[in-house]
Amino acid sequence: MIQEIVSKYRFDKKSDRIGPDCPFTHWKLYFKSSMVTLCQQKFAHFGVNAEFRPGAYAICCSKIFIGDNVVIRPGTMLFADPREGESGSITIEENVMIGSGVHMYVHNHRFDKPNLPIIAQGHYPSESITLKKGSWIGANAIILPGVTIGENSVIGAGSIVTHDIPPFSVAVGSPARVVKKTTEK
After folding, report:
1. Distance (Å, rounded) from C-alpha 158 to C-alpha 58?
2. 38-47, 85-94, 168-177: least confident range
3. How far is residue 15's CA from residue 9's CA, in Å, rounded to a whole number?
4. How many Cα atoms occupy the beta-carbon half-sphere of 153 within 13 Å?
5. CATH number belonging to domain 2-181
6. Residues 129-173: tens digit of each pLDDT
7. Residues acting as catalytic residues
8. Is the overall model pTM greater than 0.90, yes or no?
9. Are 76 and 103 in contact (CB under 8 A)?
10. Vertex 169, ends 163 and 171: CA angle to 5°?
11. What is the average per-residue pLDDT within 90-116?
12. Which residue among 50, 124, 158, 181 has the highest number of C-beta atoms inside a 10 angstrom radius?
């Protein structure tokens, strides 16, 4: 058991991820100074006044860019592509609001070979995700591969975003559809 603990400690320190499944680094998220230090070490970029709260997950931190004044809340999952050479990054520009439980995935399982179990088919190529400055992603929304959320746009809680959302738009539903502009009353 001691050997397992040491092995897990080494994994948590070296791994390109943050989350409750990495307890030897996750505890640092509870204290602002250690949270900032950990996030600056792990993420490709971690902005000024940004926060990564306990209970959130990030896979392949080295391909995740978090801008100034962004808070990643509990239950959120940022899943960039851990495969070498693949694009599959996540960019969250400054002043983006993200509700709890938001999930972002840059790739998806293949399912185009009907005679082969899906688990054995691998993944489609990765497509990066970008959240432009000032946007707001409601709680439990899901952002799928290749999506760009436009500047100052709003994604309604629980929405599933399968395609780009233009700037200054409000999009809701599954799949998310633009229902109005943020400039409308």
Report:
1. 20
2. 85-94
3. 10
4. 24
5. 2.160.10.10
6. 999 999 999 999 999 999 999 999 999 999 999 999 999 999 999
7. 109
8. yes
9. yes
10. 55
11. 95
12. 50
CA 101/CA 62 separation, integer angstroms: 21
- What the block records as the tokens of 2 is 């001691």
> What ranges make up the beta strands (E) of 121-181?
129-131, 136-137, 142-143, 148-149, 154-155, 160-161, 169-173, 176-181
Q: How far is CA 99 from CA 13, 16, 53, 129, in A?
A: 28, 23, 12, 17
Q: Is the pLDDT of residue 67 over 80?
A: yes
Which structure tokens are listed for 28? Answer: 């640092």
* Whole-Å CA distances, 32 to 13, 39, 70, 81, 125: 18, 10, 14, 27, 36
Task: Give residue 86's pLDDT band: very low, low, confident or very high (50, 70, 90).
Answer: low
- Please name which of 158, 160, 178 lies closest in space to residue 168, comparing C-alpha atoms: 178
What is the C-alpha separation between 155 and 158, in angstroms, rounded? 9
| Nearest in space to 90 (alpha carbons), one of 55, 54, 66, 72 | 66
What pLDDT does residue 149 have?
A: 98
